[in-house]
Amino acid sequence: MPDAPRRQPDEDAPPRPAPPPPSDQDRPTVPVPEVGAAGLTDPIERSITVRLFGSTEFFRLWAAQGVSSLGDWIGFLAIIVLAARIGGGASPEAAISLVMTARILPGFFLAPVAGVLVDRWDRKRVMVLCDVGRGAVFATLPFIGELWMLVAASLLLEILTLLWQPAKEATVPNIVPQRKLAAANSLTLAAVYGTLPLASALFAVLVTIAQRLGGIEGLEVLQIRDETVAIWFNVGTFWMAAFMVWTITLPRRTRRGTTGGVNLLATFHELKEGWQFIFVSPVVRSVLVGLGTGLMGGGMLVPLGPVFAEGVLGAGSAGFGVLITCLGAGTAAGVIGVSALQARLPKHRIFPWAAVAAGAALFVAAAASDLVVAGAMVIVLGVGAGTVYVLGLTILHESVDDELRGRIFAALFTLIRVCILIAFAAGPLLAGVLDGLSHRFLDRELDVGGLSIALPGVRLALWLAALIIMIAGLLAVAALKGRRNGNGHRDGDHGAASHPGPDAAPAGEG
């Protein structure tokens, strides 16, 4: 039987309308094969993992960061014990301070250059090599017997961390849909700080194991000390994290015409380009300032908390523990709340007002003379700080093009280091200066309408920190009003950072 003649298309028929494009809210910055924009239709996309994390690739990256963070905390504790033991002629406190300084200082000078390199190099390869390198550095620590060697090792560890952090943050928007970025940042915060209690408990267990192994006859040759087993465990966590990142398939990035070699002129130009973007973008500038001041104000509560709890609240060391617990609980509540309500939150409106609320809560807490009132206000401070941190990272992820992201996040981490250093180092000094001025001019007390208000230096320092946070938040309100991203587009529009690059390809990189 002959085949039926095929029907020829009607040339006069109108063309079929093209299917509607996917929503920008569901579209990741760079196309990812596993995360569709038209809904969760693929079996993998229907899985709990993808619904929670946005993509299986981010879940793997998150798991790798959790393992790496566990190693970071255990290594931090092990280095403190090691520094106290090999301090040499210095006191244990001075030795620890010197080693910790070696972990902080590189960030001020090398972080901007690290951001340039992260934008230039293969970010997956950077993360893998940094984790391998950090594990290798830790593997040398049991054989270190001089303080200067430990300082050099700490410097190298910090340099590798300065490369790893912006590489990871710059990668997140390429593997997570925009609508899931806030949840991704909440999960990241949980992976970084949620591993601290586990690391502390695990470190104690590893020290106990080391002490028992050291007492076994025949093992003296291994020179097992309190921190040795923890250090070797830490080596394993970093190398495991490196393997986990190596298995991740990342979208291929479009790189500019740079070879990745050492070119000082090109490096300077790219560094200048990143800082220029920060200054010309009101969104990025406001987020950086809001995050920095928020961390500085909240950070001042740590060194000033014992004095405030003892001298103002009359609650002693137990009162300081209550305040820190309230701060942690509030931060966790803010992070969880943002993650749960992310789809309905106008991020650019909530971010600055959360900073204002955090500053106001700190001001009221510092004005309180009762532990219950102060604790309640510190909880509000924590909620605001957690909200500011998660939304700030999310806005940066959405507002910055992929080729600039490494430099912007390197600048953010540099600013965080500066603000935390100011809070920890300058906070007590500022409280001392203000206490002297208050004693000289006001006799540490002010009478207003028959009401006597005590003005110790610690209260004045916390008030000043609160005012700085509120001013930064109000400035951010004006800068972010009606804006959506770093390109200045208003709500409802979409800038270049929200769209895939024209040359992006879904093939795995590295």
Overview of the structural elements:
The strands form 2 sheets. Strands 1-4 form a two-stranded antiparallel sheet. The N terminus and C terminus are likely disordered. The protein has 510 residues and is mainly alpha-helical. It is globular. Helix content is 69%, strand content 3%. The protein is built from 15 helices and 4 strands. It has 2 domains: 208 residues, MFS general substrate transporter like domains (Growth Hormone, Chain: A, Up-down Bundle); 229 residues, MFS general substrate transporter like domains (Growth Hormone, Chain: A).
Rg calc: 26 Å
Fill in the CATH topology of the largest domain: Growth Hormone, Chain: A
Oligomer: single chain
What is the ordering of alpha helices and beta strands?
HHHHHHHHEHHHHHHEEHE
Low-confidence stretches: 1-15, 17-42, 485-510
Q: Judging from the principal axes of the Cα atoms, what is the shape?
A: globular
